[in-house]
Amino acid sequence: MGPLLVEAFRYNKWANVHLLEVCSGLSDDQLQLTTPGTYGTVAATLQHLLGAEQRYLRRMVEHQPEIHERDPFPGVRAMRTIAERSGDLLVEAAERVTPDDVIDTQYGDVHFRLHVGVVLLQAMHHGNDHRAHVCTILGAHSIDYGDMDVWAYGAATGAMVPLATG
Fold first, then answer.
1. Helix 42-61 vs helix 76-96: angle between axes, to the nearest 10 degrees?
2. What pLDDT digit, counting tens, does each position of 115-147 carry?
3. Is the residue at 83 inside a domain?
């Protein structure tokens, strides 16, 4: 495992790709499912999650967004490609961030000086929040989404290995 923040963004990428893999088996009608208390439909939530990652990357590394929430849903395959690229760029940003890294940005009419670490933490929180929304929708409609918590990530990446008993 690498430094903790870097590993956290490796998990973020893994979880996004895992969820998109699950969603690749959904029908167009299932991608339009929603449940009260969530962001919106499965498709809209995925597009919002990845659109936000693209905006965070634009602020941090001047990456030009490949997807916008107001665009038509590009399909799960395209979303997965975007998630893989965004995930790699977030991992790279986590590897480089220092306590002195700041950006000047604007929200509405207010200008801010913002530590890059805050943007990274927002990306992590936002991803967890909206992946949970999609899982809530899938679970409410009895659609299995597998195991995508950090334990599953550890098992999938070899960071958690059962010991032989005996």
1. 30
2. 999 999 999 999 999 999 999 999 999 999 999
3. yes
CATH of the domain at 122: 1.20.120.450
Residue 166 located in a structural domain: no
The answer to whether residue 77 is domain-embedded is yes
Name the token pair of 85.
């690229």
pTM of the model: 0.93
- From 113, 95, 94, select the one nearest 103 (Cα to Cα): 113
- Closest to 141 (Cα-Cα) out of 30, 15, 52: 30
Instruction: Outline where the chain has alpha helix (H).
Output: 4-23, 28-31, 42-61, 76-96, 116-140, 150-157
Rounded Cα distance, 65 and 165, in Å: 50
pLDDT, tens digit (0-9, with 9 covering 90-100), for 25-63:
999 999 999 999 999 999 999 999 999 999 999 999 988
Q: For residue 150, give its domain range.
A: 4-157
